[in-house]
Amino acid sequence: MSSLFGTAAYVPPYKYCSSWGYRKQGDDDNVKYCKGYSYTEEKYVKGTICRKIRTGDSDEYRMSPEHCSRTYRYVEVYTEGAQQGPTHYF
Q1: Cβ atoms of residues 49 and 71 within 8 Å
Q2: % of residues, the chain, pLDDT over 90
Q3: Around Cβ 8, how many Cβ atoms within 10 Å?
């Protein structure tokens, strides 16, 4: 029996535009707008942590990996090279 453990950045579900359209607005015929939204599934990015990265001289920042919200630790248990059960995040 062996185990594998480490850190993983958590990326919660988030909304994104999945369908774009164009419409007339005033004198402009090609104003792009979102026609429909979808949601991603949550995911864990093993081997990394969730970080804030400054994007310039101001207080603006981005998350890395994109959209992450926190860092978890994880553990996996193996017997003869086969994973036993799901990955446990804590």
Answers
A1: yes
A2: 79
A3: 21
Closest CA to 71 of 4, 9, 3, 5: 9
State the Cα–Cα distance between residues 30 and 13, nearest whole angstrom: 31
Q: Which residues pair with 32 in a beta bridge?
A: 22
Nearest to 45 by CA among 4, 12, 21, 78: 12
Residue with tokens 């950045």: 9
The closest alpha carbon to 75, from 85, 67, 87, belongs to 87
pLDDT of residue 4 exceeding 80:
yes
Q: Collect all residues with Cβ–Cβ distance below 8 Å to 36 and sequence separation of at least 6.
A: 17, 18, 19
54 vs 46: which has the higher pLDDT: 46
Q: Is 26 helix (H, G, I), strand (E, B) or coil?
A: coil
Average pLDDT over residues 50-64: 89
